[in-house]
């Protein structure tokens, strides 16, 4: 295992990660590794952040350290290679071939460090007809079939922010991949390249649905199935104040409790009779329209009816359960999700705020023994 002065604690304490700065899923994946205790050094480019956001508020760069390297300068690639030589993982999110042209591709990095795990984050993947095409989350999830599952049947598919593609299908699969490859590298002494494509991960997320489709238990259009809003006791309903309640009363006992608290009485037969679902949905909608969201929240409080208020981002940290668990935390004046998941022996935390570009160069040069990061120095070979 690489010895590192990793600030803070977590199960990945001692793991060194180089992150080549990008946007979206790459930085979030590196943040997750940092949250878990890894010593993540973000290699920022000169000229400031890619997105028009104040670096002080970019909390996907929390728990990291930053150096600035100009990869187009004569000594730029060797500075990154010197970091890679001392790292366990490297994460990059360029289009295929860009890292190679910059001199920091897998071949160059693995030549310096054969045990390195080189994680590549793209939308389309490293090969295939669209590999060189630009794109963003919504364009990546569209051809996988998952975007077409969202929203009402009589409306366009709903855009799920960039959570489904960038972060679920992208970042999380990259993290699983590099950690699995790290396990292999420590057992065998051999590193490898991890090709994490958003299209692959997002398609993989729908594995259960594909099984249901093959078995005839899922219709291939939205708003007609148990879990996509087609079912009247699995969906959202507007309340008297224009807010919403979410209902997920799938099992018979939860369904019965839901109807009782809603005040509808016995509708047992309507649960599995699809021909009655439209009528049931109208009855449920009318009941929810009779009270406010907070009033219905009080009605269902403490029950197993599987009903919850739909909260906004600013409301969420104040939910009693989330507040009791510390699901959100405040650091540096910014309310933000706390690291997840949780560990009994190696607890995690938000140790530092967003890394400012280049602010940690001297510390990283010392801790990683890469003096070439400092002005006027040369990297050791």
Structural write-up:
The protein has helices at 25-35, 76-84, 98-102, 106-112, 137-141, 163-188, 198-205, 207-214, 252-262, 277-288, 293-300, 320-325, 361-367; strands at residues 16-20, 39-44, 64-68, 89-92, 117-122, 192-197, 234-238, 244-248, 307-309, 328-331, 334-337. The strands form 3 sheets. The chain has a 6-stranded parallel β-sheet with strand order 3-2-1-4-5-6, with helices on both faces. Strands 7-8-9 form a 3-stranded antiparallel β-sheet, with helices on one face. A two-stranded antiparallel sheet has the order 10-11. With 381 residues, it is an alpha/beta fold. The longest helix has 26 residues, at 163-188. The chain contains 13 helices and 11 strands. Helix 1 (25-35) crosses helix 6 and helix 6 crosses helix 7 (198-205). It is elongated.
Question: What would the keywords be for this entry?
Answer:
single chain; three-stranded antiparallel beta sheet; disordered N terminus; 381 residues; elongated; alpha/beta; six-stranded parallel beta sheet
Percentage of residues in DSSP E strands: 5-15%
Distance between the termini: 21 Å
Average pLDDT over all residues = 94
Question: What's the total helix number?
Answer: 13
